Amino acid sequence: MRKRFSLVTLLGLIVLSLGAGALLNRMISGDTIFDQLNKFKDVLSLTEKYYVEDVDTQKLTESAINGLLNQLDPHSVYIPASQMQRVTEEFQGSFEGIGIEFQVLNDTLLVVAPIVGGPSEALGIQAGDKIVRINDSSAVGITQEGVQKKLRGPKGSRVKVTVFRAGIANLLDFDITRDKIPIYTVDASFMLDGKTGYISVTRFAATTHDEFLEAMAKMRAAGMKQVVLDLRGNAGGYLEQAFKMVDEIMPRGRKIVYTKGRRPEFNDEYISSGSGRFTELPLIVLANNGSASASEIVAGAVQDWDRGLIVGETTFGKGLVQRQFDLKDGSAFRLTTARYYTPSGRLIQRPYDGDKMKYAREAFERSETEGENITHTEEKDSTRPVFKTMGGRVVYGGGGITPDYIVKADHLGEYSVQLRSKNIFLEFANQYLEAHGAELKKEYGKDVARFAKEFEVKGAMLDQIVELGKQKKVEFKKDLYEKDLHYIKAFAKAYIARSIWGNEGSSRVILLEDNQFTKAMTLFPEAERIARNLSSLR
User: Fold this and answer.
1) Known catalytic residues?
2) Could you read off the pLDDT of 364-400 as tens digits, one per residue?
3) Containing domain of residue 190, as a range?
4) Are 429 and 339 members of one domain?
5) I want to staple 142 with a disulfide (CB 3.0 to 4.6 A). Which of 34, 52, 94, 146 is the partner?
6) DSSP state at residue 170
7) Residues 314, 453: one domain?
């Protein structure tokens, strides 16, 4: 009886333990995540087994992942394995290939520019060269994707390209050894005059801080006493790189940004180190509705500490931090793990109601009044939360960074937009340089600033642009043409300048017609006055 009783008791205890374990597991899982995983597995398995047609289970799974992330926020996204290489290259700041910027124009592979420091530049490949053969196969009619497939490849591998160059009777053969090619995030930096530097940053990748330092040091050596930092269209990137940039312009001990998440490991704050090399430099930041995330960290810190002025249009309004999780099949997903806040405590993330299209559109459809906004009266009737800069100025959270001076960008008319979208300006510049490139280079040499001020697109050149447009079915509209004529001239001139002097050439030309930049250049006295508030806090 004792043995029997003991056995029954033991079995009862085992059953009780198993039941308690199952209950405990359910309690621990909270949202019964294992039940939900089993549910999805059942649906996928039954669909694959019984659906009326063959199904692609990978496609279904990826659709389910996208559906899951769509329920969270607009910045948590899935990245298929096929896109991961390109995404990784963009953020690491390099790829492996021959080092050219290119465009397929009228079925012809055109070298827009060799990348500085790449193997193509070293061998003498030039802007305007037309690649007609790749490894003895015709390149005529090649697609953008085909170019990348044939010209990119592992460092140290070789590829042969045959080039047609205007003014040379015979084709030119180049045997190119592929190498690691930098993808620059500082796309232009130069002195505007004897004391003003200009630097444009297109995104925040792994190399941005180093590029920023190099460009700033070069301009300081050339006499820079004040600087315009252009973050327009910069959609962001690495938070740490944004912090390092601000650290270079901020005195010691200033909170630059901090993050808060549901889990404490994602809470962090970033304090300036005091090792910045440009803390005294008068500063103006250009921003617009395409400036987001890391760009808004920079703009927010500058504004909250009254370190300089923000000029342009209200930024996008993305105050969420993502972490990337890599998956076993080579894909990945980015999940929002925290919110970030500016030094005054502003969350600049805009409200999101689940409609991604509406959310994206809202940033570009704001109604703003142009003019001085130092006290931020533009937002005074807003329901957004109120904060103060370290100097006591009112600023607002919950909807991007609103500038201290609001200047709306000029909008191109339909005719100009069509010319750009059909690559008319690039085609014009290529044809013009084939005929006049040598004399232009002889006339201006390295003096791109003089070219920007003196060279004029006029007469037959404008007629040629109109005719090229007609050939691409861009209907000529006289009223729209005349309205945008100064921009049409500027774009044509900029494409010529870029082919000879790179991004500095095109930037110098376009800035002359840039109303936001023009206003910024008049505001350095005000920027210095605002920054004195920061100096008094030391």
Assistant:
1) 293, 304, 318
2) 888 899 999 999 988 887 788 999 999 999 999 998 9
3) 186-409
4) no
5) 146
6) S
7) no
